[in-house]
Write a structure and sequence with these properties.
Distance between the termini: 40 Å
Radius of gyration: 22 Å
Number of strands: 20
Helix content: 25-40%
Bound molecules: zinc ion
Strand content: 25-35%
Length: 375
């Protein structure tokens, strides 16, 4: 038995020179019906490692039959990936509008009369039927949103996001692959998935509220959270079967195929626990899984404009008072102050991210750390 692997392109936009940008969709179907996982990479165009993991996943899928289906979108935002300035990829924001590409998704189920009607008519249905029928409703709602969005022409802000949301609607599990600027590996996990996220073995996880903040993970799980609360108001307890995570795979601008093999093992392990892959992969040494609430994920802003040396690397623990970064600022010479100064930890924590360059203006996001973490 082998997987059926099909590929297609979806036209997205056209450049002034006439060339077209399109999404590459790869659909992998197993021989048996089963769950559906949707995986995309590089919505932020400088965040490449997810594509390396997808490459490794495709190698794996050529020889290993799955149960159910995996939809894969490498290079999910071609415009962002192709926006280069010198050697640097300007991938985080739409260069034409300044908007963050991962804040342009839609929540069309909040206070939706369609969702209330759906819940009322499915008060007695079993969860399997609800799941199947609700996905159909979500598809209809997205398509009507999309029709409105393009009524006066294909508004670039949001069109790629709506198309990705549409492709993810049929799925049970969504993995949105990103990276930090200079970062360790970590997950964004909605509160309702805190326990279930243990099957995705990445070492650090930020627990985010079950709320919409316009990112892909929230755009895909909020319809289910909204359905759950609508059911609750009507007196029914509904268990959300759907899962969605943002997976941060190290640093931007670079791929590492060896690291991608490790990253893949964690993802295969997750797919195994969700019944898509039969055999459990052999995981590298079990790492600690440390969590913190989003409110305990703290940003240290650069106190001064300066060149910064980073004293510890992402993924490292530190204690209150430890030196996290050392700045040098020659303007200080003219103020009779020491050129060198230090940024010290205000509390114990773990460094997750730091600014990707040493040249930092005051007020920039210098360091991001987990505080009050727990296992
Ligand atoms: Zn990102």
């Amino acid at each position: 038995m082998t997987n059926k692997i099909s590929k297609r392109k979806i036209a997205l936009s056209e450049l002034p020179s006439g060339e077209k940008l399109s999404l590459k969709v790869i659909e992998v179907d197993g021989s048996f019906e089963g769950p559906h996982c949707y995986i995309q990479a590089s919505v932020h165009g400088a965040e490449h490692q997810g594509n390396a993991v997808i490459y490794r996943l495709l190698e794996y899928l050529e020889n290993n039959p799955i149960i159910g289906k995996i939809t894969i979108l490498p290079m999910a935002n071609p415009q962002a990936i192709n926006t280069k300035i010198g050697t640097y990829t300007f991938g985080r924001f739409n260069p034409n509008t300044g908007d963050n590409w991962n804040r342009l998704y839609f929540d069309f189920t909040k206070s939706s009369t369609e969702v209330v009607e759906f819940a009322k008519s499915h008060l007695q249905s079993d969860e399997k039927d609800i799941c199947k029928e609700y996905k159909k409703l979500l598809k209809e709602l997205i398509l009507s949103q999309k029709a409105k969005h393009i009524e006066y022409g294909p508004n670039t802000n949001g069109l790629v996001n709506l198309t990705l949301q549409e492709l993810a609607t049929d799925s049970d599990y969504v993995l949105d692959l990103h990276t930090g600027p200079k970062a360790t590996r970590y997950l964004y996990v909605p509160e309702y998935l805190e326990q279930r996220s243990d099957d995705l073995h990445f070492p650090f996880r930020l627990i985010i509220p079950n709320e919409f903040g316009s990112a892909m993970d929230e755009a895909t799980f909020m319809p289910w959270v909204n359905l759950q609360s609508t059911f609750k108001e009507l007196g029914r307890d509904f268990h959300i079967p759907f899962e969605s995570y943002t997976v941060e795979l190290g640093s931007e601008e670079i791929i590492d195929l060896e690291e991608a093999s490790h990253d893949l093992l964690y993802i295969l392990n997750y797919l195994h626990h969700r019944g898509i892959i039969e055999e459990a992969p052999e995981l590298p040494r079990e790492s600690e899984k440390l969590k913190c609430k989003l409110s305990d994920y703290k940003t240290y802003y650069a106190p001064r404009g300066a060149l910064y040396h980073y004293n510890i690397s992402p993924g490292s623990k530190f204690k209150k008072g430890d030196i996290l970064a050392t700045g040098i600022n020659f303007e200080n010479l003219f103020r009779d102050e020491p050129v060198k100064f230090e940024v010290k930890a205000l509390a114990d924590g773990i460094l997750i991210n730091h600014y990707p360059s040493s040249s930092v203006p005051s007020g920039a996001e210098l360091l991001q750390v987990m505080q009050e973490y727990y296992s």
